[in-house]
């Protein structure tokens, strides 16, 4: 996996976009902070980082990015959303704040802050055959859960209790957890390998 160098946009309105850019750069591709619609025309794929989906939603609509990202998703641009980024890719957001919108594209319903206050953040090892035989150490931070998946959605990883935490549908990839902060770059390499 890996292939030739790619330009990967990272939506940089809010959240931990710098960490994703560093991972992409470390893999020999180029991570580009994307804040304006026209910048989306220069990338082979897009990462939507973790952060706060309510804020990301408001800023993306304010700066004209919401419609631009939706158009690129409809065009088939590969997009990888982590945590808040997964929420932004979900067609349905549960426990959203009033008026909260997502870009959509992934035929899933995602519940925000699904682990509640007592278990805000945790780490666990996940079996994810799509990225390799060894378990992947996954960090969850006020993470969402994928509650329902549509017929075209492939589940890539679930917790021991069956709750789904990584999905793929066509060119769209989403994880509840944050591979950009663990040093294990397999998920990013997996995404890079899907770029045209
Ligand atoms: N680490 C994260 O991205 C947290 C997501 C956040 N709880 C939200 O609803 O957007």
From TrEMBL:
The keyword Iron does not apply. GO terms for molecular function: glutaminase activity; pyridoxal 5'-phosphate synthase (glutamine hydrolysing) activity. GO terms for cellular component: cytosol; glutaminase complex. Keywords: Glutamine amidotransferase, Hydrolase, Lyase, Pyridoxal phosphate. The keyword Lyase applies. It catalyses: aldehydo-D-ribose 5-phosphate + D-glyceraldehyde 3-phosphate + L-glutamine = pyridoxal 5'-phosphate + L-glutamate + phosphate + 3 H2O + H(+); L-glutamine + H2O = L-glutamate + NH4(+). InterPro entries: Class_I_gatase-like, PdxT/SNO, PdxT/SNO_CS. GO terms for biological process: L-glutamine catabolic process; pyridoxal phosphate biosynthetic process; pyridoxine metabolic process. The active site is at residues 83, 178, 180. Pfam families: SNO (PF01174). Its EC number is 4.3.3.6, 3.5.1.2. It comes from the Bacteria. L-glutamine binds at residues 51-53, 112, 141-142. Pathway: Cofactor biosynthesis; pyridoxal 5'-phosphate biosynthesis. Catalyzes the hydrolysis of glutamine to glutamate and ammonia as part of the biosynthesis of pyridoxal 5'-phosphate. The resulting ammonia molecule is channeled to the active site of PdxS. PANTHER family: PYRIDOXAL 5'-PHOSPHATE SYNTHASE SUBUNIT SNO, PYRIDOXAL 5'-PHOSPHATE SYNTHASE SUBUNIT SNO1-RELATED. In the presence of PdxS, forms a dodecamer of heterodimers. Only shows activity in the heterodimer. HAMAP family: PdxT. Belongs to the glutaminase PdxT/SNO family. This is Pyridoxal 5'-phosphate synthase subunit PdxT. It comes from Naasia lichenicola. The lineage of its organism: Bacteria, Bacillati, Actinomycetota, Actinomycetes, Micrococcales. The gene is pdxT.
């Amino acid at each position: 996996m890996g292939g030739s160098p790619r330009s990967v946009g990272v939506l940089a309105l809010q959240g931990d976009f710098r960490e994703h850019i560093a991972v992409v750069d470390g893999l020999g591709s180029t991570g580009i902070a994307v804040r304006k619609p026209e910048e989306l025309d220069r990338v082979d794929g897009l990462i939507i980082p973790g952060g706060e989906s309510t804020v990301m939603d408001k800023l993306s609509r304010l700066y004209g990015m919401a419609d631009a990202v939706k158009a690129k998703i409809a065009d088939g641009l590969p997009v990888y959303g982590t945590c808040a980024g997964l929420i932004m890719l979900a067609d349905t957001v549960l426990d959203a704040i009033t008026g909260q919108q997502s870009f959509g594209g992934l035929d899933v319903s995602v519940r925000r802050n699904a682990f509640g206050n007592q278990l805000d953040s945790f780490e666990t090892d996940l079996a994810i055959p799509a990225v390799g035989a060894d378990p992947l150490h996954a960090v969850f931070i006020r993470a969402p859960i994928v509650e329902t998946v549509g017929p075209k959605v492939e589940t890539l990883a679930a917790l021991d209790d069956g709750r789904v935490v990584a999905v793929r549908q066509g060119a769209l990839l989403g994880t509840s957890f944050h591979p950009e902060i663990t040093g294990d770059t397999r998920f990013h390499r997996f995404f890079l390998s899907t770029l045209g």
